TrEMBL record, chain A:
Taxonomy, superkingdom: Bacteria
Keyword Cell cycle: no
Region (Disordered): 173-213
Pfam families linked: Fer2 (PF00111), Fer2_2 (PF01799)
Domain 2Fe-2S ferredoxin-type: 14-90
Keywords: 2Fe-2S, Iron, Iron-sulfur, Metal-binding, Oxidoreductase
InterPro entries per UniProt: 2Fe-2S-bd, 2Fe-2S-bd_dom_sf, 2Fe-2S_ferredoxin-like_sf, 2Fe-2S_ferredoxin-type, 2Fe2S_fd_BS, Beta-grasp_dom_sf, Diverse_Oxidoreductases
CDD domains referenced in this protein's UniProt entry, alphabetically: fer2
Species for this entry: Streptomyces daqingensis
Skewed-composition ranges (Basic and acidic residues): 173-184
Protein's name according to its UniProt entry: 2Fe-2S ferredoxin-type domain-containing protein
Keyword Iron-sulfur: yes
From TrEMBL, chain B:
Gene3D superfamilies linked: 3.30.465.10, CO dehydrogenase flavoprotein, C-terminal domain, Uridine Diphospho-n-acetylenolpyruvylglucosamine Reductase, domain 2
Name by which UniProt lists this protein: Molybdopterin dehydrogenase
Species per Swiss-Prot/TrEMBL record: Streptomyces daqingensis
Pfam families reported in the protein's UniProt record: CO_deh_flav_C, FAD_binding_5
SMART domains per record: CO_deh_flav_C (SM01092)
């Protein structure tokens, strides 16, 4: 710390109130705590990972009022009054949500370090752009870094999840499920829980060597 | 790394924020979206003793057009808000702004980063800085003595240095006239990185399209701030019929008219090669609108 600002070296703390995954947390913390550090260290929500700490890798991506943001590039104090969602909000107990399920089915993860960031990135993006094309998904996936999968399976997982959500929405709107000749869409009318394992793999070579490690 | 300790202040209104900045002096930094500042603080390249958070100020976000056809963008408007602005909020005259947003970082940066923050940060390769210089934007700063308007040509002074006083806050940027034939393009080593070179043009074809009555060409990444290239603009206006040949000639003139730096992102020669490609590409894209 610089000599001309000794008053800041003290453990100056401030009271914060954060809304995380629908719960209000009050905590006393230093202003310099970034949102990701507060989530992990103060709230013990360690699902959100921290990688580069300068906004490049995206491992810390969370939703702020529904939009994907880098939790390392904002101070927790800036998140007061906003709705924060972390990866812990996705699963219902031990039951994965449809996006997580799609990542699993498409082998969209290996070591898993980047996965919470990709999941929250995709949740935020699909909420805004449910009709996203595969090309748009590919561009958004470029926001985050993964050093294992090579991204293709992540793109496919997100694309598949989006297609299923669209199909589910269509069938809800129409009040009744019906087949329209599109084999993927007709499968998509099932909920993710009832899709047999491997069903989502028909369009992608599950046994390809690129994912065999 | 973790940032150095600081005192956090949350501004309630613009007047309060500027008063506080005047009181705190050089020790204070304004934070809006923080997409550049927090990264610099995490690296401890910046160690402000005080942060004044203007992110929650009401009335500083949004787009509106004025009766003269100008577009006003509130300083706290995010890049993503411009990227997703409804067509009637921007109109064909400002589609260049919307389309340029895809070059600004990545989606999770654009949802937090603000137009005013980017301009006040003054990165030499920032898209908003380039657009402001290209389109003669005016920047509205609020200080203890009220508001003043600064022309973009006078706003950028050098690397991360602007005409803003330490106790001033950028509140709005005004793009004074529509630019229906404008485009920005750039090259970066990876998508979302800072541009090695960025190029933007604003073209005014004559009725009938036989030549250009006016043209603007601006480059980023070749100097300490975005620069206009008058030699390339002359080449466009005096060069005859619009088309690939004219654009290639113009781009070659642009490449020879600037003195780009050599650094880790590329040599001066490499940047000139990029300019030759990007200026021509920007012209094509601008005329394709």
């Amino acid at each position: 710390m610089t000599d001309n600002a000794p008053e800041h070296t003290a453990q100056q703390r401030q009271l914060l109130s954060l809304d995380v995954n629908g719960e209000t947390h009050e905590l006393l913390t230093e202003p310099r705590r970034t949102l990701v550090d507060v989530l992990r260290h103060d709230l013990r929500l360690t699902g959100t990972h921290v990688g580069c700490e300068h906004g490049i890798c995206g491992a810390c991506t969370v939703l702020l009022d529904g939009a994907p943001v880098r939790a390392c590039l904002m101070f927790a104090a800036q998140a007061e009054g906003k709705e924060i969602r972390t990866v812990e909000s996705l699963a219902d107990g031990t039951r994965l949500n449809d996006l997580q399920q799609a990542f699993s089915e498409h082998h969209g993860l290996q070591c898993g370090f980047c996965t919470p960031g990709f999941l929250m990135l995709a949740e935020g993006f699909l909420a805004e752009r449910p009709e996203a094309s595969k090309e748009e998904i590919r561009e958004v996936v470029a926001s985050n870094l993964c050093r294992c999968t090579g991204y293709q399976t992540i793109v496919e997982a997100i694309d598949d999840c989006a297609a299923r959500r669209r199909a589910a929405l269509r069938s809800r709107l129409e009040g009744t499920a019906h087949h329209n000749g599109d084999s993927r869409d007709s499968e998509d009318e099932n909920t993710s829980e009832t899709v047999p394992p491997g069903a989502a793999c028909e369009e992608v070579p599950c046994g390809s060597t690129t994912r065999s490690r | 790394m973790k940032p150095a300790a600081f005192t956090y202040h949350r501004a309630r209104d613009v007047e309060g924020a500027t008063r506080l900045l005047a009181e705190l002096g050089d020790e204070a930094k304004v934070i809006a979206g923080g997409q550049s500042l927090v990264a610099m603080m995490n690296f401890r390249l910046a160690r402000p003793g005080h942060l004044v958070d203007i992110g929650g100020l009401a009335g500083l976000a949004g787009l509106r057009t004025d009766s003269g056809g100008g577009l006003h963008i509130g300083a706290l408007t995010t890049h993503h808000a411009v990227e997703t602005a409804p067509a009637d909020a921007l109109g064909p005259g400002f589609a260049v702004l919307r389309d340029a947003m895809r070059w600004v970082g990545h989606l999770p940066i654009r949802t937090r980063g603000t137009v005013g923050g980017s301009l006040a940060h003054g990165d030499a390769t920032a898209e908003w800085c380039l657009l402001a210089v290209l389109l003669d934007a005016e920047l509205v700063a609020h200080g203890p003595d009220g508001e003043r308007r600064i022309a973009a040509a006078e706003f950028f002074h050098g690397y991360y240095t602007t005409a803003l006083e330490p106790d001033e806050i950028l509140v709005e940027v005004v793009f004074p006239r529509p630019a229906p034939h404008a485009a920005l393009t750039e090259f970066a080593e990876r998508q979302g990185d800072f541009a090695t070179v960025s190029a933007a043009v604003d073209l005014e074809p004559a009725d009938g399209g036989g030549h250009f009555t006016a043209a603007r060409v601006a480059l980023g990444g070749v100097d300490a701030m975005p620069v206009r290239v008058p030699e390339a603009e002359d080449a466009l206006v005096s060069g005859g019929a619009p088309g690939p040949e004219l654009y290639a000639r113009t781009a070659a003139v642009a490449a020879e008219s600037v003195d780009p730096p050599s650094d880790g992102n590329g040599s001066a020669h490499y940047r000139r090669v990029l300019i030759r490609t990007l200026v021509a590409r920007a012209c094509e894209e601008a005329m394709a609108r």
